[in-house]
Amino acid sequence: MTTYHINLEGDVLKVRFGTPANGDQVIRDAAARLEEMVASGELSGGKLLKIDGPASVAVSYLIAHKISQLYGAIAVFDPKIGRPGYKTFITAVSQTPAYKIGELIETDEPQQKGKPIIKVVLCGPPQSGKSCLREGLKQAISNIEGAPYPYVITACPDGEGAWFSDAARRDLDLARRLKDEYKAKFTAEFAQKAAGWVRSASTPLNIIDVGGRMTEENRVIMREATHAVILAGDEGKEKVPLWEEFCRDLNLVIIANLDSDYQGKEDKIDTHSPLLTGSVHSLKRGEDVSRRPMVQALAQLLVGLCRG
Fold it and tell me: Is the separation of the CB atoms in 229 and 255 below 8 Å?
């Protein structure tokens, strides 16, 4: 099985991750597929090519390198912008005056066909391992056949974006230094911007990582979501009832209430329904936690919500 899928549907290049693998293998598979499509004439060029689907930074550079010379312009789908329910693309490459860099191209293609849009917030006290859970959950969902791509929105200016986990696995000290450099203040302006990202998100499954405090800024962001997962470590367990109340006040459906057992040796699942409860152990930065039983259970729960 390939680690990266690329298919042409009309004037839209559909891309998605396949079998989990390191980035170097993903790049080789993507390159081979693109070369095959060009050689066969499937990618023969034209005025405009739209790209829809998740891609790593490396794959994005590869696609631009391989096919940008074939098309007058290339536009990339961005789920954070545009009318709710319809796909909007941003022009990223242009060699023609017909399209300007940064121009938005809205299509009539419905983003959803009767299925719900799930926007689940990972919340709870600070230092509980939410970012580690986020990355493990993303990997676990990607490994479920037929699951929607888990689109992650980092809605806190702590400098720890989706890149952090991969960087930490290679060089934890460097990742921490970069995080400190990227860290910004949590302002009302940032909250409004992040709330807009969540509100406009139109992919089937969206995971929102928020800060660890019950602030007005988090209230603004979280009220745009649909569901909540609460994660708390030993030092924050007494705050869980307050987080539950905070979520209920925002009309969020709490689907999981989890203990973060940093010193633990194994996960513990207490209940699956009506609420997923139990513990996930040792959420350490830089570790792959995607195969932990609790992470797997939460991934299955979220995919099930998307399927209705």
Answer: yes
